[in-house]
Amino acid sequence: MTPGKSRRGPLILAWALSVLLVVALAGTTLSVIALQKQRSDDSQRDGAMKAARQLALDFTTYDYKTWDTDAKRVLDDSTGQFKQEFQAGTDSVKAEVLTNKATSKGDVKEAAVVSNDKDSAQVLVIVNAVVTNTASTQGVERRYRIKLDMVRDSDHWLTADLQVVG
Question: What is the CATH number of the domain that holds 77?
Fold first, then answer.
């Protein structure tokens, strides 16, 4: 063996190990970035669903004795056209609720995010509510399927549209 050949083996091995180390570090970095993005997406989806569940609960829970506070909860978590429409109808609904001594106690049964990105989401929520009033003092159970369009305002999700779909 010549002296040049005996030195090349360890040099090639060191070079190969260096390349493998760089590839492993790059793969690990890409995996960490992908995991962080997935966690961020999951967090945004969970935030939108939690806010939609709460708004659906607030929307289906009211008492004629506390109507103003109950309506304010819905308005505080709303924006855009839905907020305007809800605000515009509040006085007439309040009159009906007070006249009939109406109450409603919502109970969210299911919720699912239909679509989402970092600033918006569409969520379907199923709510059962027991409604009482002067005509039905024992209460009547109603089931609502509600579609909510959510938008993110900073770190807070707001309802931009609410539709009872069944």
Answer: 3.10.450.230
Q: State the residue range of the domain holding 25.
A: 9-165
Q: What is the average pLDDT score of the chain?
A: 89
Host H or E run for residue 79 = none
The structure's pTM equals 0.74
Dist. CA 151–CA 18, nearest whole Å: 48
- If phi > 0 it is left, if psi is from -120 to 50 it is alpha, else beta; for residue 32 that is alpha
* Cα–Cα dist 118/112, whole Å: 16
Could you report the per-residue pLDDT of 102-142, keeping only the tens digit for each?
999 999 999 999 999 889 999 999 999 999 999 999 999 99
